[in-house]
Design goal:
Blueprint (H helix, E strand, L loop, with lengths): L7 H9 L3 H13 L5 E5 L5 H8 L4 E6 L2 H14 L5 E5 L13 E7 L8 H11 E11 L7 H18 L6 H10 L5 E7 L4 E8 L7
Parallel strand pairs: 1-2, 1-4, 2-3, 4-5
Antiparallel strand pairs: 5-7, 6-7
Bound molecules: S-adenosylmethionine.
């Protein structure tokens, strides 16, 4: 099995997360009524998010990552999944400029990547630029709402130690809110996977159709 991580601890941590991707993809399909159109998976890494969305929609998937190694892994995931969707692999830094025109994507997902972005405000502004009018984006990290609570608690415990060791500090909901406002975005919500377990913080961005007259 190809793996984006050289570190054994990270490999097994990634492996333990495998059940979350189909559940999170189903959550996105349910919440945003995904069916057709363009989906971009930013910071795709292993390519699991985009691929699980592909399996249950007719969407064209653009896998984006700053690291060629991430895209190599994503290609491998796509090959193994045997999907029919149109797919593209794009090496790009979300904090600079995504190589897509304005109003391009129907849905943008970015899981577990924002913490690594050098300029998060610019990255969020790029997501908004590329999103179609009426489109939605979900950026953040977590395991999704559909995961059973006991499994969530167990997986979060394992991840917490690993992220702490890597010195990764996830922004709070308030910090995500401030980033969106600094990016000039007003139409967003901060979401939690599970308020009781205080895990998983996301920003959901909605690009509204502007009314004329
Ligand atoms: C922890 S992995 C998450 C992978 C996958 N999305 C998931 O949910 O398992 C973070 C990914 O974000 C990518 N990344 C980090 N900074 C980025 C940037 N500025 N633009 C695009 N991708 C970036 C990394 O290369 C890495 O593949």
């Amino acid at each position: 099995m190809l793996n984006i991580n050289d570190n054994e601890e990270e490999k097994s941590s990634y492996h333990s997360l495998l059940p979350i991707y189909p559940l999170l993809a189903q959550q996105c399909v349910d919440d945003y009524r995904l069916e057709n159109g363009i989906c971009i998976d930013i910071g795709t890494g292993n390519g699991y998010m985009g691929t699980e969305i592909a399996k249950i929609t007719h969407m064209s998937i653009f896998y984006v990552d700053i690291e060629p190694k991430g895209l190599e892994f994503a290609r491998h995931t796509v090959e193994e999944a045997n999907i029919d969707n149109e797919v593209s692999f794009v090496e790009a830094d979300v904090c600079r400029q995504l190589p897509f025109k304005d109003n391009f994507a129907d849905f943008i997902i970015s899981r577990g990547s924002l913490w690594f972005w050098e300029d998060r405000v610019k990255g969020i502004a790029e997501v908004y630029r590329v999103l179609k009018m009426g489109g939605k984006a979900l950026i953040g990290g977590g395991l999704g709402r559909y995961l059973p609570g006991s499994m969530r608690a167990r997986l979060m415990e394992g991840r917490k130690n690993m992220l702490e060791k890597k010195g990764v500090k996830k922004p709070s909901g308030k910090e995500l809110q401030d980033m969106a406002l600094q990016a000039g975005i007003l139409s967003f919500k901060i979401l939690r996977d599970s308020p009781e377990q205080k895990t998983g913080t996301w920003i959901e961005i909605h690009k509204y159709v502007e009314k004329v007259g």
